[in-house]
Design a protein that fits this description.
single chain; alpha/beta; DNA polymerase, domain 1; two-stranded antiparallel ribbon; 12 strands; elongated; transferase; disulfide bond; metal-binding; Aldolase_TIM; rRNA processing
Length: 368
C-alpha cells in the first residue's frame, strides 16, 4: 500500500481554555457551582450566549456584577477576527480567525435571497493532503475545540442578524466545509453539532437539516455518525469516480477505496433518510472527462440509488501559483448533462468570493 501523507491525530498542541460552548447543560451548571454560584446562573449565561448571541458580560445586566466577574472564566475569547473581506455586493464575508495560540482558521458568511449560510472550519489546517486544496497543502496545525467551532457560528449568526449582509437575516445553514476534515476531529465536531442544533438557551437552535458535515471519506467515522441519530446532511468529497485518479486527488483513497466510501454513503442515506451530497471539484483536464461523468452517474445510481444522492459540482477556485484550474464552461455543462442522463441529480455550486481569496486556506496561508 502507498505510504499516506495523512494526519488523523492532530499534533499535540494545547486547546483553548474551557468555554461555555464546550459544555452540555448539566456540565454548565456544575461549572457554575464550582464558582460558588447557583445553577440557574448557568442558564442565564447560556441564554445570553446562545439566545442573544452575545459574549459581552457587560451587556448581561440581569446578572449581578459579582456573578459576571466569576462567570467571565466561562467565556474566554476563543477566536478573534484578524481580517475580514467582502465581495458579491456585500453578500459574501470571509473572516480569518486567530486562536489563543496564534493558529489561524477561516469562515465564510454568505447571504442568499432565501437564507444565510456560514461555512466554518473544524481544524486549523488539514492533514488530508489533497493536492488541489490550499488547506491540504498547508498541513494540520491542530484540531479546533468545540467552543472554537461553535463560536464561529455564533459570531456569524450575530453578524447576519445585525445586517452584515446588507439587511438583517437569520442564519439558517451551517456547512462544515471550511478548513480541516470534520470527521478527523470527530468528538468535538459532534459536540459542536449538538450545540448548534439544540434549542436556545441550550444551543443556537439551528435545524439539524440545515447543517451539512463534509468528509473526504473516513468510512468508520461515517458509520459512527449514523449511530449519532442527528439528521445532518452528509457531504462526501469524492472528486473522482475511479480509484486510479482518486488515489492521487484524495490520498485517503489509498485506505478506503471509492466503492467503500460510496457504500458508506449509501448506509448513511438509507439509515437516516437524508439524501447524501457528493462533492466533485471539476478540474480542467484532470477529472472532467465525459467518460468520468458517465462512470460517476452509473456508480451512484447502482450503489446508492437516484433518489438518495445529489451531485454538487464545484468549479475549482484556483489558488495562486497552482497548476490546477477550473474546467471550461462547455466541459462543465457536458459533465452535468451526462450525470443527469444517468438519472442522478446534478447541479453546479454557486461560486462565491473568487476575488477575496475565498478558496479555503488562502487567507491563512498569507496570514491575512
Amino acid at each position: 500500500m502507498t505510504s499516506l501523507p495523512l494526519v488523523f491525530d492532530a499534533p499535540k498542541r494545547a486547546l483553548p481554555p474551557r468555554h461555555l460552548a464546550d459544555l452540555d447543560p448539566a456540565d454548565r451548571r456544575a461549572a457554575v457551582g464550582e464558582l460558588g454560584l447557583p445553577g440557574f446562573r448557568a442558564d442565564q449565561l447560556a441564554h445570553h450566549y446562545f439566545g442573544r448571541l452575545t459574549a459581552d458580560l457587560d451587556a448581561m445586566t440581569d446578572l449581578p456584577a459579582a456573578a459576571r466577574e466569576g462567570l467571565a472564566g466561562l467565556l474566554p475569547a476563543l477566536v478573534t477576527p484578524v481580517t475580514e473581506q467582502t465581495c458579491d455586493g456585500g453578500m459574501t464575508r470571509k473572516t480569518l480567525w486567530r486562536g489563543h495560540d496564534g493558529t489561524l482558521a477561516e469562515s465564510v458568511l454568505m447571504g442568499y435571497p432565501d437564507r444565510a449560510t456560514v461555512c466554518i472550519s473544524s481544524q486549523a489546517g488539514c492533514g488530508m493532503a489533497c493536492p488541489f486544496c490550499a488547506t491540504g497543502q498547508g498541513g494540520l496545525q491542530r484540531n479546533l475545540s468545540t467552543g472554537e467551532i461553535v463560536d464561529q457560528v455564533r459570531q456569524a449568526a450575530a453578524a447576519a442578524r445585525d445586517g452584515a449582509l446588507g439587511e438583517p437575516m437569520r442564519l439558517s445553514n451551517v456547512v462544515f466545509m471550511g478548513m480541516g476534515e470534520p470527521l478527523a476531529n470527530y468528538k468535538r465536531v459532534i459536540a459542536a453539532v449538538r450545540r448548534i442544533t439544540e434549542p436556545a438557551p441550550d444551543g443556537l437552535g439551528i435545524s439539524a437539516r440545515g447543517v451539512t458535515v463534509s468528509t473526504v471519506g473516513l468510512v468508520p467515522a461515517i458509520d459512527k455518525l449514523i449511530a449519532e441519530e442527528v439528521p445532518v446532511t452528509l457531504a462526501v468529497s469524492l472528486h473522482a469516480p475511479d480509484d486510479e485518479l482518486r488515489d492521487t486527488l484524495v490520498p485517503v483513497n489509498n485506505r478506503w477505496k471509492v466503492g467503500e466510501v460510496v457504500d458508506a454513503a449509501r448506509r448513511y442515506a438509507t439509515t437516516t433518510g437524508r439524501r447524501v451530497s457528493i462533492e466533485y471539484a471539476l478540474i480542467r483536464d484532470v477529472n472532467d472527462q465525459p467518460w468520468r461523468a458517465d462512470l460517476l452517474g452509473k456508480l451512484l445510481r447502482q450503489r446508492i440509488g437516484t433518489r438518495r444522492v445529489h451531485v454538487n459540482l464545484i468549479p475549482l477556485n484556483p489558488t495562486p501559483g497552482s497548476k490546477w484550474d477550473a474546467s471550461p464552461r462547455p466541459v462543465q455543462d457536458e459533465f452535468v448533462r451526462r450525470v443527469q442522463d444517468a438519472g442522478v441529480a446534478c447541479t453546479v455550486r454557486d461560486t462565491r468570493g473568487q476575488e477575496i481569496a475565498a478558496a479555503c486556506g488562502q487567507l491563512a496561508a498569507t496570514g491575512g
